[in-house]
Amino acid sequence: MTYSFDKIIDRHGTDSLKYDFAEKIGKPKGILPLWVADMDFQAPPEVLEALAEKSRHGIFGYSDAVGNDYFDALAGWYADRFDWHPSSAWMVKTPSVVFAICTAIRALTKKGDAVLIQQPVYYPFEGSIHANGRRLVVNELVYQDGKYSVDLADFENKVVQNQVKMFILCSPHNPVGRVWTRDELAAMGDICVKHGVKVISDEIHADFVYPGHRHHVFEAIKPEFSDITITCTAPTKTFNLAGLQISNIFISNADMRKLFKLEIDRTGYSQPNVMGLTACRAAYKHGAPWLDALNVYLASNLSLLRGFLARELPFIRLVEPDGTYLVWLDCRALELSDSELDELIVHNAGLWLDPGTMFGAGGEGFQRINIACPASILQNALERLKKAFEI
Question: Which CATH class is domain 59-286?
Fold first, then answer.
């Protein structure tokens, strides 16, 4: 089947966070948004039809997945793509991965406990730690020769010195685009096992990996990792379903799972969104061809971005991503302060990107751009950026 990723769909006036809230939060009218991590592509046709069929039925009462077909769709997906074989007994549904992270923090640590993250990283990690009264510890990623890596000595030192109780892993990593190798994950996991650190592994971007790289499910690398890990998955990034609020969390350790479920009960959350269930099932059953085509398109957009920067804006360096559709741009050669860089991008170029400072330590002088849009929109954004430097 041919998919039209070049088609521009007007999202204005649809209550879109990405498009309809610019002026409300102080951005100028007419700004072009390439910030928040949702895509400007319609979900797979099979998902749209499943949602339409559910809508035609017309009753949206309390719902949950009946039988095995929901789990079987997920299990088949992860077996085929990642050689991972979770048990249905491990699965807990939540409205989002961030909800699951906050739940796990409360369930498995105490107030004042140290939780480690690797900045620059997805900013809700830090927010979730602070909001739940835990202590932030940062193992800052090392950026050298255009590539990010983990300082394992610092990782272990921070764990020991701060008596870290939990590590939130971002795999693949947002925003720096690393798809961690098996050896890198094993090294971090060994340290966590050695020092009794529980791991939340956020693997929501697992389906976006560029050729030459492979995503490894963290908990599947070694049996002992499975016993300390909460694996967070969702169809929402993969199939552009974030507004339907459905995530699937896997916890093999029965005691951890019990505590996690108890904490969910304390929030008052019970049955998931019926449309989220419907979309998730259809996506994992039928969405593989669509995703494969999308990944080819994203690689083409990445090539467009890479070539434009090299030709027209060589002072902005592309941090070559292994995966994700969120691309990290090194703007430090401009020698602008972060406020000056934001001013240029927002007001001169008319672009809404994510400033690197949002992502914590090491984000200064960087910007994150979302390339999951029609190529013509990305081209427009790049031309705007070029023009801004000509003023």
Answer: alpha beta
Residue 67 has pLDDT above 90, yes or no: no
383 Cα distance to chain centroid:
27
Q: How far apart are CA 105 and CA 84, in angstroms?
A: 25
* 348-373 per-position pLDDT tens digit: 999 999 999 999 999 999 999 999 99
Element (H, E) at 302: helix 288-312
pTM across the whole model: 0.97
* DSSP states of 10-36: --TTS--HHHH-TGGGTPPTTPEE--S
Of 342, 343, 382, 347, which is closest to residue 364 (Cα–Cα)? 342
Quick check: 22 and 34 in contact, CB under 8 A?
Answer: no
Angle (CA) 236 240 243, round 5°: 70
Token readout for 59 is 């009753």
Say which CATH class 17-44+288-390 falls into: alpha beta
- Kindly state the tokens that stand for 56: 């035609």
Which residues does 265 contact at the CB level (< 8 Å), separation at least 6?
none
Four-point Cα dihedral 275, 281, 282, 286, nearest 10: 160
Chain segment 306-334, per-residue pLDDT in tens: 999 999 999 999 999 999 999 999 999 99
Q: Cα–Cα distances in Å, from 127 out to 107, 130, 279, 360?
A: 17, 5, 29, 11
Residue 317, beta-bridge partner list: 330
Residues 6+ apart with CB under 8 A from 346: 27, 28, 31, 352
| Rounded Cα gap, residues 139 and 118, in angstroms | 5
Which residues of the chain does CATH 3.90.1150.10 include?
Answer: 17-44+288-390
Instruction: Evaluate the omega torsion of the peptide bond into residue 272 and state whether it is cis, within 30 degrees of 0.
Output: no
Q: Would the pLDDT of 267 be above 90?
A: yes
Helix, strand, or coil (residue 122):
coil
Q: Using the CB atoms, write b or e for 194-208: b if 16+ within 10 Å.
A: eeebbbbbbbbbbbb
Residue 220 token pair: 């599947």
DSSP annotation of 141 reads P
